[in-house]
Amino acid sequence: MNRKVTFIICSLLLCSCNREVDFYFNFGSQSLCVYKSSFYNLSIENDSITPDGKSYEGAISLFWTDSANSPPRRIYLDRIPKGYSVYRGGIKSSEKRISLKGNSVYTITSTGIAAVGCSIKVWTNHQGEVIKAIQMPQLGNANGDSQRNYE
Question: Could you tell me the superkingdom of the organism this chain comes from (predicted)?
Fold first, then answer.
């Protein structure tokens, strides 16, 4: 009996860790939008590197800290909603907008309450505007999808 209960609990935990990518980038409004839930934690990392192999910039991290309200379902790059603590390169920041470097590639990861991450990759033009985005494959993706292209 104990083995059966343990097996069921482990199966439920493993199934709950599988998460489809549930957000996308809206090019017209230059915003991140989520389908079903909200943006609790968000990480934006510049994948581009300098010729000597160093990062151009530290990652931008947003953490929802407003326990009285739910986080938003949309985040515009030009204005970070109140309720988020913002960090750049691990250091607390007072930034009010997300400025992306021109001609760069970023990985944007959203984690929900269960801390299971979903990612998209975005490309910017010379002005730092997002012009292309794809959903990244998730480990353990049951349906075998690899990526979805949004151009």
Answer: Bacteria
Domain that holds residue 30: 20-150
> What's the 3-state SS for the chain?
CHHHHHHHHHHHHHHHHCCCCCEEEECCCCEEEECCCCCCEEEEEECCECCCCCECCCCEEEEECCCCCCCCCEEECCECCCCEEEEECCEEECCCCCCCCCCCEEEEEEECCCCCEEEEEEEECCCCCEEEEEECCCCCCCCCCCCCEEC
Instruction: Give the chain's domain count.
Output: 1
pTM of the predicted model, to two decimals? 0.76
Is 75 contained in some domain? yes
In a domain, 95, yes or no: yes
Does a structural domain hold residue 6?
no
